[in-house]
Amino acid sequence: MAGTDEGDPLALDRQLCFSLYTASRALTGLYREILADLGLTYPQYLVMLVLWERGTLPVKDLGLALSLDSGTLSPLLRRMEGAGLLTRRRGPEDERIVHVSVTEEGARLRERAGDVPEQVLCATDLSAGRVEELRALLDHVTRSVTDASGRGATRAARDADT
């Protein structure tokens, strides 16, 4: 089929998922360039953001904050610990709980990372207000889709029982 049909619901340019995917790839690529000077990958930067903001956390809480499971998070934390950015310690009250803390080196990195948000904001060519609106819309989409998929899973399970 030559050209695109603006009325075609399956046209690539009409897909919300594709717009989100390409925007995500572009932003992640930008972060990759900016964070190279800090010696961080994008997932490592996200871990550091949570720890800088909240302080010492159990791995479980860190995973919840980042929407990452322990199978993804554990190797990431192991590499970051090896780089001297954080420590992992078993809890004295319960050895099954591992607490993650920023090291002095990790704390110093916060100062160097201070201009990352401004660099990203400049690259978006959006005002701070528009970025906040976009973030709020994306958060809404995430909650709505998560809720809808939960309802769908529940409905499918209920239908399977009948």
Cα distance, first to last residue? 43 Å
Strand content is 5-15%
N-to-C order of helices and strands: HHEHHEEHHH
Give unreliable regions as ranges: 154-162
State mean pLDDT (0 to 100 scale): 90
CATH superfamily of the domain at 36-113: Winged helix-like DNA-binding domain superfamily/Winged helix DNA-binding domain
Radius of gyration, whole Å: 20 Å
For the largest beta-sheet, the strand count, sense and barrel status come to: 3 strands, antiparallel
How many β-strands, per DSSP?
Answer: 3
The CATH topology of the domain at 36-113 turns out to be Arc Repressor Mutant, subunit A
Assigned CATH class of the domain at 36-113: Mainly Alpha
Would you identify the CATH architecture of the domain at 36-113? Orthogonal Bundle
Shape: globular
Contiguous helical run count: 7
Q: How would you write the strand order of the largest sheet? A: 1-3-2
Class by alpha and beta content: mainly alpha
**Fraction of residues in helices?**
55-70%
